[in-house]
Amino acid sequence: MLRLSLLLMLSCLAWQAEGEPWLGIRFAQNCAGCHAPGRINLPPMDRRCTLSCQGCHVNPNGGGLRNFYGKWNEERWLRSFVIEALRPASSFAPVNKQHYHTALPPTADNKEMIRKQGHPLVVAPQQLLEDEKPYARDGLEFKTARDDFQFLQQIPQEDPYRLHDASKIDGGVELRYQYLTKLKDSTEPLSFLMSADVGLRWRPLHRNLHLVYEGRMLGSPHVDELIKQIDKAWTRSLYVMLDNLPFNVYVMYGLYRPLFGGNPMPDHRALPQRLTAEALQGGSAYTLQYQTLSIGTAPNVPYANVHVITGRRRRFVHDKDDTTRGVAANVGLRFVTLGINTTYSFWFTRDKNNTQRSLLHSASLGMQLWRTTAILEALQLRRKNPTTKDRGEVVTLDMHTQLWRQFYLTTQYSWANVTADLSAGRSQQYRVGLRAFPLAGVDVSFNYEFDINDPKGGKSEKTHSLSSQAHFYL
User: Fold this and answer.
1) How far is CA 259 from each of CA 268, 296, 306, rounded to the nearest angstrom?
2) pTM as predicted
3) DSSP string, 221-289
4) What is the 3-state secondary structure (H, E, C) of 160-193?
5) Count of CB atoms within 10 A of residue 191's CB?
6) Domains in the chain: how many in total?
7) pLDDT truncated to tens, each residue of the chain (474 aa)?
8) Distance of CA 6 to CAs 88, 188, 348, 442, 444, Å?
9) DSSP state, residue 337
10) Cβ proximity of 222 and 194 under 8 Å
11) Could you give the CA distance from residue 178 to residue 63 in angstroms, rounded to a whole number?
12) Per-residue b or e along 91-125, where b marks 16 or more CB atoms closer than 10 Å to that residue's CB
């Protein structure tokens, strides 16, 4: 059975968007958010439709290089304007115009053509796709293909399924530019190229075996010369993966960060991410990597994965004597109805002598309510080292409300019973901003942030800041 499985450079500012679960919830009720509409199901063992991270990303843990389904969504849905001179990806007609099985009589030549390349995509006269209702399932979720040919009849030439087979090599590039200023502070505003990523995937066995490399250059506001920043480029991930197995099972091994949590925001300034990084390594989440063996599955609604961790690596720190070992796991359900998503995550790592130990739990619930995508997550974090034993909890409500086209009002509130460095005390974070996807591959945001850090026995600290980032991706 068959397995389903530029960039415009502007001098503007935007928010970083990697693997973000809210987008999966946001497009859960729109099948054309991932592929051409009109597709019918394969039998359960061969079905690959999923709302998990691997729906849009090469790495099932989320983030980084996008697969062809993620690029389809980026190029056709995450855009508010279309500039013809940039040769945008074509829009397409609704489900009721996409029934390709009636296009040609079933002769031998026609069948061979359908198997190899499919029919041309039925395009739409308008360039912007705004009304998503005509792209819902339309009852096709109850229809199962009787064989491979009937399944392929509904997959046109520009569909990600076909593009995946067009070449054994694909890749991507991402750039992020940041501006940050603290209000009522004498320090100078920071404006700099925050990071530049490049990813490359080679599929020697086409659909099953993937060899993936991702490199990252982290910028600094304190280094003026770009060449000095490029000189500090490092390997973000390097792994081999075997996927498209029965029931959408995958196995992977290499250097990467295993998935943890139902809302793994890529923003390292967010309070839950800061606390998670503190619990795991006492530092920035940007430098977190593990040598890991993973196995997982996402056969439509349920998903689960387990990660056996055999080592830890930090940026520019090559510790050949590192003895970090542990296990991480995620289980959950993702539904089309309201985009409901619930996840439980577990993480435990320790060193050989049990002197450095991290234990984390996460429970989350997300859904789409009219124009608002909301995710509620509760984290419990425990950290032990030779001098301290820290424990804390943090609760976060993260919301994106669609204002017009792909313009969103973003709000986030986090409360923790520890300070931002996981010591005794309290901390809170309020955030409100505007996020927009003006063009395909361009993500822009502006944010106001208010942090309260109240250490036990110390003076309460309150910080107001404005930030904006530009994220360009291809």
Assistant:
1) 15, 11, 9
2) 0.90
3) TT---HHHHHTT-EEEEEEEEEEEEGGGEEEEEEEEPPP-SS---S-TTSHHHHHHHHHHHSS-GGG-E
4) HHHHHHHCCEEEEEEEEEEEEEEECCCCCCEEEE
5) 14
6) 2
7) 333 332 222 223 233 334 688 999 999 999 899 999 988 888 888 888 888 898 999 999 998 899 999 999 999 999 999 998 888 998 999 988 887 777 777 788 888 888 888 999 999 887 888 889 899 877 777 788 888 888 998 899 999 999 998 889 999 999 988 888 887 776 777 787 888 899 999 999 878 999 999 998 877 776 665 556 555 678 889 999 999 999 999 999 999 999 999 888 778 889 999 999 899 877 665 567 899 999 999 988 999 999 999 998 866 555 667 889 999 999 999 999 999 999 999 999 998 888 889 999 999 999 999 999 999 999 999 999 888 889 999 999 999 999 999 999 999 999 999 999 899 999 999 999 999 999 999 999 999 999 999 999 888 999 999 999 999 998
8) 10, 33, 42, 10, 16
9) G
10) no
11) 19
12) bbbbbeebebeeeeeeeeeeeeebeeebbebbeee
283 and 151 in a single domain? The answer is no
**Residue in the block written with tokens 């996807």:** 437
Residue 258 makes CB contacts below 8 A (sequence gap 6+) with: 61, 290, 292, 294, 307, 309, 328, 347
Q: CA-CA-CA-CA torsion for 62, 65, 69, 71, nearest 10 degrees?
A: 130
- What the block records as the tokens of 407 is 């313009």
Q: Does residue 241 fall inside a structural domain? A: no
Q: Which domain, by its residues, includes 315?
A: 171-193+259-473
DSSP label at residue 462: E
Structure tokens at 52: 């998990």
Whether the CB-CB separation of 395 and 412 falls below 8 Å is answered with no
Are residue 152 and residue 187 in the same domain, yes or no? no
Cβ burial of 6 (10 Å; 0-12, 13-18, 19+) is exposed
- The identity of residue 314, as a single letter, is R
Are residue 158 and residue 282 in the same domain, yes or no?
no
The separation between the first and the last C-alpha atoms of the chain, rounded to the nearest angstrom, is 32
**Residue 432 shares a structural domain with residue 325:** yes
